[in-house]
Design a protein that fits this description.
- The chain is of the alpha+beta class.
- The chain has 2 domains: 2-67, Orthogonal Bundle (434 Repressor (Amino-terminal Domain)); 74-185, Jelly Rolls, CATH 2.60.120.
- Helix content is 26%, strand content 29%.
- The protein contains 5 helices and 10 strands.
- The strands form 2 sheets. The protein has a 6-stranded antiparallel sheet with strand order 1-2-3-10-5-8. It has a 4-stranded antiparallel sheet with strand order 4-9-6-7.
- Strand 1 (86-88) and strand 2 (95-98) form a beta hairpin.
- The longest helix has 18 residues, at 2-19.
- The radius of gyration is 16 Å and the shape is globular.
- The protein starts with a helix and ends with a strand.
Length: 189
């Protein structure tokens, strides 16, 4: 199953890159991810981390939710839990579930995240994500969010708003998994 997902990720990145008439070098420059790494991902020889995949998606003009949405899925205002795309970061174990129904007229994506104890994921600043914002709403556990120079310590029930393109770090300093929701607004995307 994991190998199938790696292959699907590689096929999707390559298809999107070619659809936008981008070479490997073009995508590498736009994303800040090396040409060699993108090529390895496209051939399913490497599993992208959450941070790396987010940079590639941003360069392709997509959120992670849009990237993982099932292209063959019927457009419907209802997306059942069993049909929601789930992906696990091979580096941290971070698991994201794309909750938003695909194909609606909304500029908002909702993502449910389970974040292992001690895990840390960095999303560096990226111009392609400028104009996008997100709310991070913590349900369980602890979450430490670094936005620029500011560190925010979230407890259950807390919600943090931030721009996406400026870069940020998610860190679970606790001894238990954190569960939170990300509400991503593409803005003028």
């Amino acid at each position: 199953m994991e190998q199938e997902l790696e292959q699907a990720i590689g096929i999707r990145i390559r298809a999107l890159r070619l659809e936008k008439s981008l070479t490997l070098d073009d995508l590498a420059t736009a994303s800040g991810v090396s040409r060699a790494m993108i090529s390895r991902i496209e051939r399913a020889e490497a599993s992208p981390t959450a941070s790396l995949l987010a940079r590639v998606c941003a360069a392709l003009g997509l959120s992670l939710s849009e990237f993982f949405a099932d292209e063959g899925q019927d457009v419907s205002p209802l997306l059942r839990r069993e049909d929601q795309q789930v992906w696990r970061d091979p580096e941290t174990g971070y698991m994201r579930r794309a909750v938003s129904p695909r194909g609606t007229a909304s500029d908002v994506d909702i993502v449910d995240v389970e974040f292992p104890a001690g895990a840390r994921v960095s999303f560096p600043p990226h111009a392609a994500s400028r104009g996008m914002t997100q709310h991070v709403w913590l349900f369980d556990g602890e979450l430490e969010m670094t936005v620029g120079e500011t560190v925010h310590r979230l407890k259950p029930g807390d919600c943090l708003f931030m721009p996406v393109g400026d870069g940020h770090v998610f860190h679970n300093p606790g001894h238990a998994p954190a569960r939170y929701c990300v509400v991503l607004d593409h803005g003028s995307h």
